[in-house]
Amino acid sequence: MSLIEINLPKSISKALNLPVNSPKRQQIKVLKKLLKKAKHTEFGQQYHFDEVLNSRHPGKRFQELVPVHDYNKIYKDWWHKTLEGNTDVCWPGKIKYFALSSGTSEAASKYIPITNDLMKGNRIAMIKQLISLRTYENLPVRSLGKGWLMLGGSTDLQKGPGYYAGDLSGITAKKMPFWFSPFYKPGKKIAKTKDWNIKLDYIVNEAPNWDIGFVVGVPAWIQMCMEMIIERYQLKNIHEIWPNLAFFVHGGVSFEPYKHGFEKLLGKPLIYIETYLASEGFIAYQSRQDAVGMRLVTNEHIFLEFVPFEDKNFDADGNITAKPEALMIHEVEEGKDYALLISTSAGTWRYLIGDTIRFTDKEKHEIVITGRTKHFLSLVGEHLSVDNMNKAIQVVSEDMNISIPEYTVVGEPHGNFFAHHWYVACDDRVNTEELRVAIDNALKEINDDYAVERGSALKDVFLDIMPESTFMEFMKLKGKIGAQHKFPRVLKGKMLADWQQFLTTGKL
């Protein structure tokens, strides 16, 4: 039986048949739904949700009355009460699940509230994405009813005083609907395993017994898993063991730096499906074959705002100002970078998620993720984004026929001026100086500001090549090994200090 032919529960089927409205109307409807549900909470009372609901322009009134929050602010003011077991703080009832999310720049784990309402919205978005596959040309229908290998966090969650905490992928797998269980690999028993190495060994051992149609996860870990399977069974490519593998559902990081090395493991092309599923909610998904961007989820469980990623709204370290300019979905422009604020059905209100996005098609409300608010380099006005870096790595990888599965960049003083220092993972034979020059030249082509500053205050570019295992070992020592964790593309602060100590001593 094909997955998209399953008879869905009536409540979900009804939700999937919502009338098509303009994104603006959809978003106002979502905002009102969220406000009505939360108006009797502590947060709703303090920020006058009733007044917002009675306003002629609820979107603008909401922005006037409710402040912007980053994680530190909303946790300090509100979420710590939820974690302590208080009810009706930012969302009705008691929060029983929290997604642990350390991101890629903070040292301590973040506790992101997860509610049944949020999970329901996430599931509906996932089902809509599956249904959108029907529009694809030459769809490999045979593969739709095959297994889904999902490399996620452990479903054996940490137990706190009245709550459970863990990776969102682990919470999602634990609360998986019954109708999806027959498709799910590696299965509930091994999904409970916390040890990532044991989980990978199990998958490698069981690989010949499974008929996989979909692989789902962060590119680096999926690639590692497939490499282990190919090596164990002395295969030419992964399709020798999984001939029906046709889809790769990925998200969390740009796939561009991984693509060249990833495709070396395949016997035939895959259909790549990008998702934007954060710990805070399912934000967007690729709904059209070969679409450049992902379609924002505008009519379910998330109200979206867009802050122009400009100096007037963010300081030099990427921290948002107290009263930034925030636009609604009908006010944005294509081609500009915005930081994303979200309000969700888990009590997340005007929350800076930390990602920057760009609209590729405003009419279809499709976006690409361009980076992180704190993961950019602009020491002297070069305005180098993660999107720029990813594109440069992709170009150089293809031109030099090498695989660069990981990299990170540091901005550092260089005499009276400045320099960028690249640390690149590459297990192929490559000349360090040629790679340094190639990346530098690619960035000059991609980013005019970078090209100008390379002739001025940005005096040099340094580059070190190291094995991919070096990056993986650092993540392991940081306790960040597994499907949810990504290596930061720009290192600053404590993460940079830890990286430098690791490179010097091999320890943290």
Tell me the total number of β-strands.
20
Strand content: 15-25%
How many H/I helical runs?
Answer: 18
Total domain count: 2
Provide the structure class. Answer: alpha/beta
How is the biggest beta sheet arranged? Answer: 11 strands, mixed
Uncertain segments: 4-19
Q: What is the overall pLDDT average?
A: 88
Shape: globular
Describe the oligomeric state of these chains in a short phrase: single chain
Helix content: 25-40%
Strand order of the largest sheet: 6-3-7-8-9-10-11-15-14-13-12
GO molecular function, one term: acid-amino acid ligase activity
Organism: Lacibacter sediminis
Pfam families: GH3 (PF03321), GH3_C (PF23572), GH3_M (PF23571)
GO cellular component, one term: cytoplasm
Structure notes:
This protein has an 11-stranded mixed β-sheet. Strands 2-1-5-4 form a 4-stranded mixed β-sheet. The protein starts with 9 loop residues before the first helix and ends with a helix. Strand 16 (376-377) and strand 17 form a beta hairpin. Helices cover 35% and strands 22% of the residues. The radius of gyration is 23 Å and the shape is globular. The model is unreliable at 4-19 (pLDDT under 50). It folds into 2 domains: 1-374, no CATH class; 376-505, GMP Synthetase, Chain A, domain 3 (2-Layer Sandwich), CATH 3.30.300. The longest helix is centred in the first third of the chain and has 17 residues, at 116-132. By secondary structure, the protein is of the alpha/beta class. The relative contact order is 0.11. It is built from 18 helices and 20 strands.
